[in-house]
Amino acid sequence: MFDNLTDKLDKAFHILKGHGKITDVNVADTLKEVRRALLDADVNFKIAKEFTNKVKEKAIGENVLTNLQPGQLMVKIVKDELTELMGGDVAGVNLSGNPSVILMSGLQGSGKTTFSGKLANFLKTKKNKNPLLVACDVYRPAAINQLHVVGEQIGVEVYSEPENKNPVEIAQNAIKHAKANGFNVVIVDTAGRLAVDEEMMNEIANVHKAIQPQETLFVVDAMTGQDAVNTAKAFNDRLNFDGVVLTKLDGDTRGGAAISIKSVVNKPIKFIGTGEKMEAIDVFYPSRMADRILGMGDVVSLVERAQEQYNEEEARKLQKKIAKNEFGFDDFLTQIQQIKKMGNMKDLVGMIPGANKALKDVEIEDDAFKHIEAIIHSMTPEERSKPAIIDGKRKTRIAKGSGTKVEQVNQLMKQFDQMSKMMKMMQGGAGKNLMRMMGG
Ligand code: GDP
User: Fold this and answer.
1) Helices (H), 190-250
2) What is the mean pLDDT of the chain?
3) What percent of the chain stands above pLDDT 90?
4) Alpha-carbon gap, residue 433 to 191, rounded angstroms
5) Looking at domain 3-85, which CATH architecture does it have?
6) What transmembrane ranges does the database entry give (predicted)?
7) Ligand 1 within 6 A of CB of 248
8) 3-class DSSP state for residue 284?
9) Quick check: CB of 1 below 6 Å from ligand 1?
10) Pairwise CA distance, residues 9 & 273, whole Å
C-alpha cells in the first residue's frame, strides 16, 4: 500500500538529517519534495499546496520548542497533518433505525456489490446484527446473481425481484420484508454505470428520497486516484452521502484518493476494502493510515486482527497437545489457516513497522502458504499426527503428490521441528502471549 509515496516522503525527511534545526532554507527543500511526493501520489494540487503550507507553519513554530531532531519533528508534523486531512477521528456508521437502512452508491466496478457483502458480514459477525441484502440493480441480471452468490457465501439472506424494473419499489418492498421478518439492518445495493450519468443519478436520488436511509455510503475504487475524487464530488452533490468506502487498497494504489477525498467532499472515509474476500474489510482510522503512509506500520490493526482470530478453547487444546508432544501437521495447518484469515500476506507485512522498506525488493506471494498446504495435504493422517515416521521414501511420495521438490518437503519438516521445539519451550509465561498473537 502506497509504497512509492512512503519512499518519497522518507527521502524528503532525509534532507533534514544532519541539520541541527529547521531553517527557512532546509524546510523549503524538504517541503518541495513532500509536495512532489503528494502530487506523484495523485493528490489534488490545491490540497498538496495547502498541506505543505500548514506543515511549514507548524515546523517553524515548533522548531524552538522541542528536543526532537528536525527530521523527527517533520515526520511528527506530517503525520499529524495527514491524520487531520484524512478526517481526524474514526467515523462510525449510523445504525439507529429499526431496521437501519444503508444505501450503497458508486460507479459500476467500484466494488459496491462486494462491499455490500463485506459490510453485511462485518455487521453480522462483529456487531451481532441480522442484515438483509437487497439487489436493486434492475439492468444487469448478473448483478443480482452476484449478490446472491455473496449472500450465500456469508449466510445472509438476499432480497430481489428479478421481474420488477422499479428500484424504488424493490427497495421499499425489501424494507417491508425486513420489518416483517426481524432483519435489523437493510443494505441496498444499487445499479452503477461506467461513468457518472444523469439517468443513474436520478435513479439513485429517487431511491434515496423514497427510503430515507440512515446511512448512504459512496463506494469508490482507490486505484482511480483523482477520478475517484471527482466522482465523489458528483455523487455528493446529488446525494449528500454520509461516508466514503475506499476499495482496492490492497492493489498498487498511489494513495491520492485516500488523502484528498475527505477535504474535497467533507465526508469521512468510513471503511476500506483490502481484497476480494469477504473478510477484507477494515474500519478506516485516519491516524493508522497516516502511520502506514509514513512507513511506520500499523501494529494496532495487526494485533487487533490477531485477537479477532483468537479462540480461547482452541488455544487451550493446542497447549495441551504441545505439552503432550502431540502437536502435528494438522495443527500446523490450522495455525496457517488462522493466519490466512487475518488477511493477505502483503497486507499483513505492510502493517509491520519498517517491513515494507526492508522487504521492498522481495516478491511476497499473496498465497505464501500455498506450497506448505499442498505438502501437508499430501501426507496421510498418520504422517500428519506422527511426523517422525516420515522417512525418505515417504518424502519422495509427498513431494510428488504435492507437485513440490523433496528439498521443499525437507525444509518444511525442519521448520515444523523448530516450531514444535520452540512452542514446547515457550509453554507458560511469555510463550502464551506469543501464541495468543499467533491466534492459537
Ligand atoms: P460493483 O460493480 O460496484 O458492484 O463492483 P463489484 O463488487 O462487482 O467489484 C468489481 C471487481 O472488483 C470484482 O472483481 C471484485 O472482486 C473486485 N473488488 C472489489 N473490492 C475489492 C478490493 O477491496 N480489493 C480487490 N483487489 N478487488 C476488489
Assistant:
1) 198-211, 225-239
2) 85
3) 41
4) 47
5) Up-down Bundle (1.20)
6) none
7) yes
8) coil
9) no
10) 24
Q: Which residues, at least 6 apart from 233, have a Cβ–Cβ distance to it below 8 Å?
A: 264, 265
Confidence check: pLDDT of 430 > 90: no
Which amino acid residue places its CA nearest to atom 28 of ligand 1? 276
Ligand 1 contact via 109 beta carbon (within 6 Å): yes
Q: Of residues 130 and 17, which shows the higher confidence score?
A: 130
Q: How far is the CA of 218 from the centre of ligand 1 (A)?
A: 14
Q: What is the pTM of this model?
A: 0.74
Query: What pLDDT is stored for residue 311 in this prediction?
Result: 72
Q: Considering only CA atoms, which residue is closest to atom 6 of ligand 1?
A: 111
Say how many Å lie between the CA of residue 35 and the centre of ligand 1: 31
Distance (angstroms) between ligand 1 centre and the Cα of 275 equals: 8
For residue 390, is pLDDT > 50?
yes
CATH code, residues 100-294: 3.40.50.300
Closest CA to 222 of 185, 196, 190, 247: 247
**CB of 343 sitting under 6 A from ligand 1:** no
Buried-exposed string 57-81: b where 16+ CB fall within 10 A, e elsewhere:
ebbeeebeeeeebbbebbbbbbbbb
- Pocket perturbation via mutation, ligand 1, pick of 107, 108, 112, 114 by most ligand atoms within 8 A of CB: 114
Instruction: Name the residue with the closest Cα to ligand 1, atom 5.
Output: 111
Q: How far apart are CA 292 and CA 352, in angstroms?
A: 9
Instruction: Pick the atom of ligand 1 nearest to 251's CA.
Output: 26
Give the Cα separation of 35 and 47 in Å (integer).
Answer: 10
Q: Tens of pLDDT along 309-364?
A: 767 777 778 778 777 778 888 888 888 887 777 777 777 777 776 666 666 666 66
What is d(CA 301, CA 350) in angstroms, rounded to the nearest whole number?
A: 11
Domain definitions of the chain by residue range: 3-85, 100-294, 303-437
In the numeric block, which cell numbers belong to residue 42? 495523485
Prediction ipTM score: 0.98
Percent of the chain with pLDDT over 70: 88
Return the DSSP state at 15.
Answer: T
* Residue 123: predicted pLDDT: 95
Question: Is 80 exceeded by the pLDDT of residue 436?
Answer: no
Ligand 1 pocket residue status of 276, Cβ below 6 Å: yes
Nearest CA to ligand 1 atom 19: 111
Specify the CATH class of 303-437 in words: mainly alpha
What is the arithmetic mean of pLDDT over 224-251? 90
Tell me whether residue 23 is annotated as binding. Answer: no
